[in-house]
Fold these 4 entries.
Entry 1:
Amino acid sequence: MKRGVKDFESAIKELEAIVKALEEGDLALEQSLELFERGIQLSRFCHTRLEDAERRIELLTSQGERAAAPDNLTATSENGNDT
Amino acid sequence: MTATPGLPFANPHDPRTSAHGIITVTELTSQIRTTLESSFAEVWVEGEITNSRLWKTGHLYFTLRDEHAQLKAVMFRSAVRYLRFTPEDGLRVVARGRVSVYEPKGEYQIVCEHLQPQGIGALQVAFEQVKRKLSDDGLFDPERKRPLPLLPRQIGVVTSLDGAALRDILQVLTRRHQTAHVVIYPTRVQGEGAAAKIAEGIERLSQAEGIDVIIVGRGGGSLEDLWAFNEEPVARAVAAATVPVISAVGHETDTTLSDFVADVRAATPSAAAELAIAGRTDLVDRVDQLTGRLRAAVLDALRRSRTRVLELDRRPGVTSWPARLASHGRHTAELTHAISSALREALASRLSHVHAVRIRLDTREPSRRVEANRTRLVAADERLSATSTHRQQKLRAQVSHLTGRLGALSPLGVLARGYAVCWNDKQTRILRDSATVSVGDNVAIRLARGRLSARVTGKK
């Protein structure tokens, strides 16, 4: 039942197809619910992928090395929430 | 007729020497030179440049002319260096310099210290000149523009660490995309050496692993302040970048050559940040929208199935069942009665369950009654199996199927476990991110039973 999800693009395409099939409304209840479950699974996958990364602010030196950004930059951006 | 020894250049007013007023070319030229150089030690002269030629040595030779005369001019490398624009033929300028004589050729010329284009500023001239050059090289061609990546892994930023631009960019990313990964190449954005440093930053970021888009820019300032972004090295670096570049220099009304060359021009640094994550923002909206439609569609399917159950109840095959049983004889009367009441009970139970689903759907009230109904359905199911007939088995199969499926509606069951769903005021969108509401906004909260209207008094 838990079929795999290949990548974001195919997930969102499949989700679109499922929504369309459900909206057309010609399906048996059983099939509708199966599609619904699959749709929810795809929706979760998409959300997870969109929030995948971890917030990071880095500096790149002229030598091409990466370093953490100074605190005031990360602090500024966190305070940005209040505005 | 020989000049008197010792007095080769005697007093010209002396009739004798006057008659023999012979001096060497060198002497005369030297005197002319002295005279000219002391009389014209600093002049401002206006004219049009012609025959300009920049020598390999870096010195610039040209002629200044007007309608009636022309003047040879030279500008040495040490002065050429400070020119913002390239002196070209046809350009009207005011030259500041001194008049000098080049003795070997007997020519006088003006040695320019500075040139100022007439009418328009030097920066305007330089802007147009570099622009033309870049345009000739095809750097403004629309087909060069690359689309921005849908989901950039990392966003490169070339700007000053303490400028408003960086602050604005980070603020937008915090608001719109909490998990953005930003890589900053710190650089000065104005003054000596800024252009070279900016160009270097673009190159470094475009080579760095994982960076899919680069924002280059700075906050507002005077034309002079923004100048680095009009310089050729910056424009060329933008063009040469291996990933799309968003240029965001100054305010909406400021346009620099870096903007022309960039794949996308943003009105401000904040706008650049929005553009960099626009693809992702769209995708989040799309997924949210699809998920909403998915839920609506499945609720609709449940509604339709209820209608079908009601229709089944009215079919003659069901309503005539007791009569058909009775026709088998009195000895079956008791059985008939038992079966028919069981059937009615089962149907009533199904209908009441469907009714419960309908109420839930109509009011959109997620229900703890799913469990209760499920228990009732199971009971009905058992009663049905006790009086098993072919038809009853069919009904039973349908009922247990429906039961199982309803239990699978987990998103609703979740509410019964104490979770709540928070909507925006109009209930068009489920809130997942505190950044999408403001303090003071009304929100709607849906609980397992009932709903709340609430106001945001603070957020984190």
Entry 2:
Amino acid sequence: MGELTITHFLVLGALLFSVGVLCVTLRRNAIGVLIGIEIMLNACNINLVAFSRYTGDIDGAVYAVFVVMLAAAEAAVALAIVLHIFHHAASISVDDYTEMKG
Amino acid sequence: MGSFLPLLAQDAPAFPSLKADLMQNLGAAAPEGFLCLMVLVVLLLDVIRHKGPSALYPKVTLAGIAIAVVLVCVGSGDHLVGYNGFAALSVDGLGRLFKLVFLITGALTVVFVMRSGKSYGREGEFQVLMFGALAGMCYLASATELIGFYVAFELVSYTGYLMAGYRLESTKGAEASGKYVIFGSVASGVMLFGITLVFGFTGSTEFSVIAEKLMAVDTAEPALMVGAIFTFAGFAFKAAAFPFQFWCPDVYEGAPAPVAGFLAVASKAAAFAVGLRVLAYGVGATPSLDALDPNLGQLLTPNMAFTEQVLAVAAVGTMTWGNLAALRQNNLQRMLAYSSIAQAGYLLMTACVVLHADVSDDALAAIGFYFLIYLFMNLGAFFIVTLMRRDIGSTLVTDLRGIGHRKPLLASCFAIMLISLTGLPPTAGFVGKFLLFAPVIGEGLFVLATIGLINGAISLYYYAKPMREMFLKEPDETTGDLRVVGFDLALIVALTVPLLFFGLFGWDAVADAARDAVAVAR
């Protein structure tokens, strides 16, 4: 067993990203879907920080800070919209948002 | 290659040059900076006044956009702005052209909202969102590196999500903004994962370095390709391109019609502005190929050919899906949503040949010019929908029955917009389509061009449907009447005039001007 290499971090990032995608596709609850999206963003952060550490360049870490900030903004916007839908549909299940079709 | 944080770099320059650089850089980002400032101004104004509906806000917004247009126009030259060798922003023709498209679209959207006859006492918030969206879009048009690009991209997305649900009492509006925010966030998450891979395997956040490495002959790094495709997915979502177009009809139908028009033109143009810049850098990055053997002409590297194939598949899928699905729509707003998908397909078709060095500038010019006229015809059509919603309360195609007999001028203007969207002479739409197809045919992509032309023929069927209702059917008692007089009518005529003007005069002048206007700073 050697020490940790960048591959380990990239595999972790890819796995976490897959978990996020699964969460988004399988969850029927809008809040659950949003949590899935946050997991995807955090997988990206792992990649960014790992690359940053690997190359010794600070760009990736700076990028990760921006992603954290935008993820917070996104959560605020998305939760406000889900709350707004709840006022109309009285449900947070994504299966109930089906007024428009075709 | 400079670092994003210049002060940490070994060769950090002395302080006086920092100040000079700062002033120059602030000047280069003047339109974006001003728009961000306006976000704060309107937000404060909204908090201080807080007296319900006011006609003040649209005026403030229009004045702000006018100043931003001036700031864009006074900026000149083609150069990159950055720090310590790190290019963060470009000041060039391509950026200016797209910024004008965004700002004109934004101004018209604000006027449409004002004329939509709906007032909820929250005008201030809408203007804040509008300024935020415009600031993000303007930054996107000149961004040359990934971090600034990502922040601006998300700014455009978030304001778009909120604007789509702006009509609070509308259930459809809530559903539209919910679908938009969920699909949009997933798409941007996928894009970000792609970006991290691209960043990691190219080692840079600068578009020029990334494009160079992506297009180079001998980098068939699988992880890099996966990253590039994931990144493309984010762009494709924003531009509503196949196979990421599924959200588009629902969002455009549920959103208020002026907002749908704004998203269909400005949001799409923003995605194209960045995508075209990356492609243009890709062309600039491989100048040595001609030198290898001049007789071969330009050679596409395998990665360039692959990019071209991906874009071609997306183009064919986008235009065909959009046009076929539009055929069976009875709701005019939803039909226009599908039509805007199809239009993005034609633009993607031309984006394919941006990678061919000899027609690259023609293709860029054609896309830029097409957005400029698409703005008038598409926003005009969405304004008609806005007025239908206001006066009739319904946006079905059959609600237009007999309008041509009652309101000949209005119906004629709408017909000219539809003819222009189809791409038939003597309208600007024909000139635009001609310029879009010319480089594709010139580069010998006949199959792609043929599919494009067949799609144009299909689109005639559904664009003709409203015209048939307006002119060939007699009005009956049940159909409501559009009360379009005075300012509304003048606005519609004003949107139609450029379509006829560009269609009848100034062919060569238009093409030349567009070519000069889209210079890309490298």
Entry 3:
Amino acid sequence: MVVKISANVQSALADETLQGNLRRAFVDTLHSRNEAVSEVPNWEELRDYARDVKAHTLSRLPEYLQSLEEKVLEQGGKVIWAETGQEAVQFIVDLSHRREIREVVKGKSMLSEEIHLNESLERAQIKPVETDLGEYVIQLAGEKPSHLVAPALHKSRKQIADLFVQELGMAPTGDVLEITATARKLLRRHFLTARMGITGVNFAVAETGTIVIVENEGNVGLSVAVPEIHIALMGIEKVIPRSRDLAVFLKLLIRSATGQKITSYVNCLSGPRRSDELDGPQEFYLILIDNGRTKILADDFMRESLSCIRCGACLNVCPVYQTIGGHAYGSTYQGPLGAMLTPLLTSVSEAPEHAFASSLCGACHEVCPVKIPIPQILLKLRERFQSERNQKAASFSLEKLVMQVWARVMCAPSLYARLGRWARIVDKVCGKRGMGRLPVPPFSRWMKHRDLPALPPQSFRELYSKEVS
Amino acid sequence: MKVSLFITCLVDQFFPQIGISTMKILRKLGVEVEFDSRQTCCGQPAFNTGYVEEARQVARHFLEVYGDSDHIVVPSGSCSTMIKVFFPKLFAEDSSQRSLAEEIGRRTFELSEFLSSVLGVETTGARFPEVVTYHDSCHLLRELGISSQPRQLIRAVEEIDFREMEHCDRCCGFGGAFSVKFPDISTAMGADKVGWIQGSGARYVIASDVGCLMHLRGLLERNRVPVQTMHLAELLAKFED
């Protein structure tokens, strides 16, 4: 399926709630993040450290994943290797059917969105219940997350209240506490009845087999402790070598994501409940999901994109994301990290616009806690897109032809100068608005909302040669 | 000292006054200025849209023209970045071209950097009794790390009232080909910028990149906002001849 951002821009710009929320998020979240970062004197050092740890881990990924597997097995957990999202989904569906499970509670997991888990569970007559408040809201609304940390960012308080009145029979209220209490009360029942909890993973420590999940609402704690079975979905890139690295990664992730010093909860999970323990699941499954990641791992230039710890700071700082929001990207991952990961996880032909939907301003690279050079990766993706497109013998690209002619002209100074003179004549003939009046791109696209300056009577080189002579 | 100008294609064809101003400033400071008419473009339009081979051709032409230059001064942040940062990447697999590109990159300076850091100039002697603000162009700021030099030079202009705008370092939305591939996003980002410019109370917005200025001017004119755009070189050249 081909997703096109340009098709969604108009409606995103016209959505006043979205625009207002984006504006607030831009100001508030970014402000908190900047404050939280400024409190850490060695922030830059930590970023370098984290980037190096990630690069090292990715260079020996099979080794660390095996070590993680061993530790999880030692602790009584089970590990499933899923090459595709479909394999992971099938495992969960089969297990649920075998155990006659009809309902599962879920912690927030972008990977579960990536592999379309909820849709597959519903088709298999298993009811997924999202327990993160934001995810709960969008599940009720039948929508998708528009921000990987704040999935319901595009919704207003009133829209959420109306949704709760309509879907849950809540008495009308504008009080956030009451709205939250309604969700809390209903979710509590699901925690007690669901026999399976499914979560994502923020980090998995190879040396100890510890699964780390950060959260603020306590819903993950309940999802992993109350039901009989806990399934953790993990992209293979989430493994880190040692526990001591965790201190750095937690600091970087949390401050970058929400501007908190630490989240309300940091769940460190070590397999299923042991005989002397009071709570925890009876069974624990870790599903290691590839779903396109080894393809990226094998690509020297793109490998660094797998260092992403999904903090969302690049979305919050991105002027493009802040202008169109997440849904306009039409993909699971949005903003700069989505522009980068979507074509990498699928292909440049399935996400032909993602790499181009960036002004390459570099703000994302500036805030990235693991220093991923996102603009460089986008540039390389643009290069790959053009070369793939132009390799298809049957496809004629006007843009390619224009670029070839342009390059010729730029290597031939006298031709360049002559064309400049002709352009000025055309500009003058066109009258008041100059060449901008020509009803062809790029002029028409430029002129849609802005003017184009008239060309001057003489170019710099003409003025200069006059002066010299 | 001798300086080779790289005037950039947009300045050459659209805003020759910026080139004239650059020349005027450097001459006033006692620098010998030369302009090689074989120069054209740095290749950025092709590079940024993924046409790397075409960009490489144009970059090769640039390296030919500037092979023997001592100092190359460019009144543009993004073109300087193209030369200093991206040329070596373009020739990653060609070691002789790469080292030439790196060498030329070391000799290339964006105008404000050249004035402040190489010549050690504190003021150009310009006088401009107006309220101005400064927009940080992305490549200049984030790739080259240049933000204090243009501000120091602006503040040193006589009788100027310099006011920082909110979010001065946020992209204006130009982004080269981005401006025509996604015109609605580009101009919506520009509208935010225009709001912050107006919020500063400035009557002039100064920047060091013609791309940003052309985009902002287009928006200001279309929406009849009483703010003028001005390139840093034009401001710094406002002295008596």
Entry 4:
Amino acid sequence: MSLSLRGLSFKYRGQNEYALQDVNMELPRGAALALTGPSGCGKSTLLRAIVGLVPRYYAGDFSGTVLVDGVPVDNMSREDIARTFGFVFQNPDSQILSYKARRDIGLTLENLGAEPDEIDKAVNEIAYELGIRDILDRPVHELSDGQRQLVALAGAIVTRPRVLILDEPTSLLDPRSTVAVLEAVDRARKAHGTTLIIVEHRLELLLRFVDHLAYMDRGRVVAFGMIKEAARLIPQEVLPHPSRIGLEAFGDAGLLTVEDLVKRAGGGP
Amino acid sequence: MIELLDIWHSYGNRQVIKGISERFEDGRVYAIIGRNGSGKSTLLRIMAGLIRPTRGVALVNGKDIGSMKPREAIKEVGIVFQNPDYQLFEETVYREVEFALKNLGIENNREQMVGWALRELGLEGLKDRPPLTLSGGEKKRLTIAAVIAWRPRALLLDEPTVGQDQAFKELLMRLIKGHAEKGGPVIISTHDMEFLWKLNPNAVLISDGVVLCRGEFRRLALKECFRSTFEVLPGLAALTRALGLSDPLVDDKEAVEAIMKWR
């Protein structure tokens, strides 16, 4: 679905500074956006505003509109919102409610009225994709923080949302699980035309899975666009090593992987 | 110094630590790395005396941490958990940092100690804010401040870079080195391999409850045990390997030079 953010501003009650200041963005259907910026710059607040948690559940001064395929999120029912958006919070414990992982992953489907065998099938599929079949029947409190992050993510993807919003979904994952998760999200996005927004501080493993990039600072979006153009506008230290090395060694070389660097250095075809 | 002597631990009938013996010297920085669920956090909790291992003993300066009184133990070993929400409960940032100092009965210089910890973590500007209104990254910084405030000798940090930007990571790196220079070991558990590449601590790779290999992080990241565990290498490790170099490329500058030479 296409997503339009029009003039979003928000100030939490009791705070002097705006957490969001006139944020505008247009994402076409199926776009994948990496959202980054210094800690406390408003990334999580922006995600909450997109799904309507701000201002519904957070007190403060809000203005602006979020449109999903032209429909304002304000006008959507909770059920519509639950069907449209998949959301993974920074802290998996804010959204895990069940005793066993299997039940938790299927919970939203259950709430939306899906049949038990339909839920079972969907949960097994997603567990296979994320490589977590072996923890499905374990009590959630016995899992490590990283494993709980995977359970929260599975619960968000399993409903096949049209807009998937992930707040640092891989911050607690080892590199191998990180790539597995990003690949699974990427497959889901391409198969279902999902629009994706991922907040991340570590871009090195993420960049090849997104096409848009935004950088926020003090509540404002200071750079936004297709990844190559936006990458030129953001602080260089945010970029992964190969990109910075490429810039230094070959001038303005855009975003490069290690393989690109070696190819460029070797002067190949 | 912290010594682990043949540590075994199980949750119910699931064995997570299967015989780990390891020594962490004063004045040095260590990293415990491994895949999700490999037992890293359990190991840190055992070292802090929060979990009694099923078998084996964790010695802090020669004394069993499990036999120490909590008050004595936290002066020796401070631990910052992965999830900041587990350890934040005061009404303001300032009081959160002050909390443990009060509990430890520290009266003299309390204000200075709180001020110092807040400055170290760049939190002075937020001292009157309720912790629950902070961003994820700010909460994490607060939990670190609240632990270093009483200056425990050894410092254990579980995923300290989660939610942190580059500027803070630089600050954290200085803090870690500074703490190690003055006191006991600093032991970090993290998946942030780019951070570890810069910090270059002594790394211990655990897999399925045992130590798979150990060594200086940058060298370890070039070894087969690292590649087979994580499959993905830190950027500069991948480049070092791709260029067929035997010594790790330490930073971007060295990498650029190596590439120019290689052309």
